[in-house]
Amino acid sequence: MSWAFLRDLLSGVNKYSTGTGRIWVAVVFMFRLLVYVVAAENIWKHEHDEFECNIKQPGCENVCFDHFFPVSHIRLWALQLIMVSTPSLLVVFHVAYRENREKHHNQKLYKNTGKIDGGLLCTYLISLILKTGLEVAFLVLFYKLYNGFKIPRLVKCDIKPCPNTVDCYISKPTEKMIFLYFLVATSCLCIILNISELSYLIFKYSIKCYLKRHMKKQQ
């Protein structure tokens, strides 16, 4: 799978981000995207082939695998990466709208089309709220789908067409567990960064509005 589009998106967003936003981009690119491409994808590459049950009943192994892994960890992680990065497109589109508006009117309408103020500030705040919401939603989804953030070595399955309760073994559980914890940790770090940036921007804007009103009263 090519991740060039996501890399380009993150590079574009980095130009319009605050300091905390740039840290978020670095975390997503270095500790999530690169880890996924270089290491994690290979660990889950043959998870179905390496899932073994102590019975050769036709269909039993497939049904048990589907029950315990309704969605592959790695595919869900890939979907999470795409979804949490997508709201940043709102900021890129808004800046492009400002630039096109200036070209259409053939005059300078903004001091800096990429400066986070006015309508662009609202768009930026919305993108932060969406990213935070999606991060939390995916963490909850991971927890619900797999009954917690753990990967057992052995699972017991009694779903038809299995004739009785069979033991099924998951390959490389320790290695997968480490990457799963890393996934959760980086998601939590991104949530903290998003909330920090959101709080900073709201506080900064509130102070700016207060100072404006104070200056007007003095005049």
Automatic annotation (TrEMBL):
Q: Which residues cross the membrane?
A: 21-39, 77-97, 118-143, 178-203
Q: Supply the Pfam families for this chain.
A: Connexin
Recorded GO molecular functions are: gap junction channel activity
Domain of life from the UniProt record: Eukaryota
Membrane topology type: Multi-pass membrane protein
User: What is any one of the record's Gene Ontology cellular component terms?
Assistant: connexin complex
The segment(s) forming the Connexin cysteine-rich domain are 134-201
Question: GO BP, one example?
Answer: cell-cell signaling
Q: Which PROSITE patterns match?
A: CONNEXINS_2
Q: Where would I find the Connexin N-terminal domain in this sequence?
A: 42-75
The record's section on InterPro entries has: Connexin, Connexin_CCC, Connexin_CS, Connexin_N, Connexin_N_sf
Compartment annotation: Cell junction, Gap junction; Cell membrane
| Keyword list, A-Z | Cell junction, Cell membrane, Gap junction, Membrane, Transmembrane, Transmembrane helix
Membership in a protein family: Belongs to the connexin family.
Its biological purpose: One gap junction consists of a cluster of closely packed pairs of transmembrane channels, the connexons, through which materials of low MW diffuse from one cell to a neighboring cell.
Subunit field text: A connexon is composed of a hexamer of connexins.
Name this protein carries in UniProt: Gap junction protein
Q: Which organism is it from?
A: Sitta europaea (Eurasian nuthatch)
